[in-house]
Amino acid sequence: MMSNKTYPVLLCFLWTLFGVSKIAFTYNIYLSSYIDILTIVNFLFVFMGAGIIAFRLLSKPVSFNAQIFVFFVLLLLSLLNNSIFALIFNFLVWYSIAEIVPIKSFRFVYIINIGLLIGVFYISVKLNGDTYYFDLRYGDVKSFGFENINSFPQLLIIFYLIFSTKIRHLFMLFLVYLLVFIDDIYTKSFYVILVIYPCLLLLFKYYRCRYLYLLPVMLFLGSILFVYMYASNIPIAIKVDQIFSYRISFSNIILSSIPNLYYLFFGLSGGGDEQLPMDLSYMAIIFTFGLIPSLIIILMYTRTLKSLIIKYDYGILALCTTFLLYAFVENILISFILNPTFYYVFYYLNSKR
């Protein structure tokens, strides 16, 4: 018979499992035709998320604090933008998981399910044949079952970040990645993050970066500034746009589609022109949820980093910092499954820890 400590871990495992299944049946070229299965998976994903929230509410009393205040503010804003309902659900599930699932159990569950997702995509192309995306720079590039060549490297990076905070473990995984994927993955950010993460681990272990908590603000404002500079035809912004594979110019086009200040502050459901990629996470959250919810998210990360610096938890600090840097070039900040840092955000925002 399962103990009360086992139930939340099982719920977390099932929610994450259905989450990665949702990604597989939505984005895998060979599995996306199974619409009926996807419908069932979507239902179970939401059902398990609701179960996690219910378990948290029933397991211990809820006291009014900053996190509850954030939920209340977002609930009011959702009256102006339906997209914010998804954000609230996302936050409530991660908040509940952080309250009822220990860190080691969460990491174990997450590693298993992300590893399973990587395996599904990798095996699908081995059984059904490789899939390719034509890139003007490199020609036909393997996409590992995705339509976008950057999607599979995203999974590998998320697994890499959550896998361990020990240099020797990361070094072994780093070598495995190079041996298996160096001839097939051309995404530059993939290799940059592979190097940055262990470097930050070493840096934070021996040096306390007291002002690192300002990084989310700098990345957020930097994204806005570069888009503004690009719109003003400033040469340095145009050069940076080329380096970042035209992510800034795409964001500028989408930003131009926002009709007025009302939608800028409260969000434009769908994020503007859906035909263009929104790879800059910090711009994507503005397009989808609006400036006010975006500032709330940035503030949450700022407070989390500050708490990690004070507690000198350099491993999780390096993980969250690397993820925030990666979010500058990939749209992964607001994701039900592919953003494990939300667990640490809500875990460390709890003032009692």
UniProtKB/TrEMBL annotation:
<feature type="transmembrane region" description="Helical">
    <location>
        <begin position="280"/>
        <end position="301"/>
    </location>
</feature>
<feature type="transmembrane region" description="Helical">
    <location>
        <begin position="6"/>
        <end position="25"/>
    </location>
</feature>
<feature type="transmembrane region" description="Helical">
    <location>
        <begin position="189"/>
        <end position="207"/>
    </location>
</feature>
<feature type="transmembrane region" description="Helical">
    <location>
        <begin position="308"/>
        <end position="326"/>
    </location>
</feature>
<feature type="transmembrane region" description="Helical">
    <location>
        <begin position="107"/>
        <end position="125"/>
    </location>
</feature>
<feature type="transmembrane region" description="Helical">
    <location>
        <begin position="69"/>
        <end position="95"/>
    </location>
</feature>
<feature type="transmembrane region" description="Helical">
    <location>
        <begin position="37"/>
        <end position="57"/>
    </location>
</feature>
<keyword id="KW-1133">Transmembrane helix</keyword>
<keyword id="KW-0472">Membrane</keyword>
<keyword id="KW-0812">Transmembrane</keyword>
<protein>
    <submittedName>
        <fullName>Predicted O-antigen polymerase</fullName>
    </submittedName>
</protein>
<feature type="transmembrane region" description="Helical">
    <location>
        <begin position="213"/>
        <end position="231"/>
    </location>
</feature>
<feature type="transmembrane region" description="Helical">
    <location>
        <begin position="243"/>
        <end position="265"/>
    </location>
</feature>
<feature type="transmembrane region" description="Helical">
    <location>
        <begin position="157"/>
        <end position="182"/>
    </location>
</feature>
